[in-house]
Amino acid sequence: VNPPLPNMVMKHISELTDHPLNIIIYDKPNDNRDKLRASLIKSKNKTGIANKEPCKIDSNGVVYSGHRRKWASEEDETGVLGYLKCEYIDHTFDPESLNDPTLEQEEADLLDEYNEPDIIRSQTSWPVVLRKYNYMNNLNYKKTKKYFSAKERNIWCAEKCGFQPDPFKKMVEIYDVGRNDLIDKVVQGYSLP
């Protein structure tokens, strides 16, 4: 019998692993983490701990929430960032879950639960929302052989992102045809026609 793990721990970033679904949902190459990295360094220098909000990890170090903090720390060239405050969750990632659409859905829902839009920044940006929607729509297809209906799309929109259905529908259509340049324009403040 293993003794229970302490709930909060300091973990070196080399001990943390990206959750495979976070890699799909979040656009790591195009996510600018400069401000986040500067904030982590400032916090580390001021308090001794880089991240005020703990990363949520399983017992094997798989990151459920805090992947951007992990990525920003990995990119730190100052040598200040190395350890992140982490909190163990009551779940262990099983890679086999990604081979079963129902279990994959449960895993995606758990990730979503740990990355609530009202709590964690950049969960409601158009690029993140559209990537999540696209992933969940494709996962629905794997499970049911059907993509979301218009009604299901609107329900997903209402539950997950807080955007109005009409702009969301237009943004999904733009995303589906690969016009990321137009999504970037909306992010910069331009209006949809």
TrEMBL record:
<protein>
    <recommendedName>
        <fullName>ParB/Sulfiredoxin domain-containing protein</fullName>
    </recommendedName>
</protein>
